[in-house]
Amino acid sequence: xxxxxxxxxxxxxxxxxxxxxxxxxxxxxxxxxxxxxxxxxxxxxxxxxxxxxxxxxxxxxxxxxxxxxxxxxxxxxxxxxxxxxxxxxxxxxxxxxxxxxxxxxxxxxxxxxxxxxxxxxxxxxxxxxxxxxxxxxxxxxxxxxxxxxxxxxxxxxxxxxxxxxxxxxxxxxxxxxxxxxxxxxxxxxxxxxxxxxxxxxxxxxxxxxxxxxxxxxxxxxxxxxxxxxxxxxxxxxxxxxxxxxxxxxxxxxxxxxxxxxxxxxxxxxxxxxxxxxxxxxxxxxxxxxxxxxxxxxxxxxxxxxxxxxxxxxxxx
Length: 316
What we know:
This protein is an alpha/beta fold. The chain has helices at residues 18-27, 69-72, 150-160, 189-194, 211-217, 247-259, 279-283, 302-306, 310-315; strands at 5-9, 33-37, 52-53, 59-63, 75-76, 82-90, 115-120, 124-131, 134-143, 171-175, 202-206, 234-239, 264-271, 288-295. It has a domain at 1-76. The protein contains 9 helices and 14 strands. It has a 12-stranded mixed β-sheet. Strands 3-5 form a two-stranded parallel ribbon.
């Protein structure tokens, strides 16, 4: 069978099984583009050890509220392919791991990971892991039952990323990271994620509360007392309201990194309004090779920062 494109949409659970899907994929080994829209059973009737290879696959798109690992546990995603997933979820934990196969050996497409893009709104979440071998993109809508705990969910996303090997990540983009002013906020999550990124060179924070990440980068402030991300050269900050921007912490961080021999090459600060301590921006130049400070420029939309065509998939 030389079929290259396959789309299945809104098939009731009692009309399809995981075994039937796997049997079909095994026969149609030329498939390049697969779309499954609300067409995954909630359980598997296939032996756990069965894994079907998709050697020609370029894109696998899954849009279903059913846990995607029910199918992905049985599929081998080849190098060069993109795995795109969308779902809705309600609960008190990050569902990220539930929508991935139990073994990352099935995801040959995402190693090495050189780019991580996160969009963390109160309800809408995006996680994109990419590299020269392919891409994993997860887009979900979920709420916790208790109001005011969405930041905890965001922390769990960062902690869930610990399952992946991120030491080779060179670029990290985080958009709409908004810690809520509630008790029990865990600000250690930025430290945990940055501590894994030994090769990080560019960190972009778009429309974010920058402070937890800036503090994590400060050798004095972080728990290990070591300089995180030793290869970091560029920090890009898109700030909605420059007046509330915490320049003091940024200056302290750059000073300490420079003292440790890890001087940043470039800091870019872009935002609206007027910086309350504008003169302190120029103080940064003592510790950073170049400071690009642009006032009155509106921060880009989150999808502009996310890049890599993710929004085209969502809209297309």
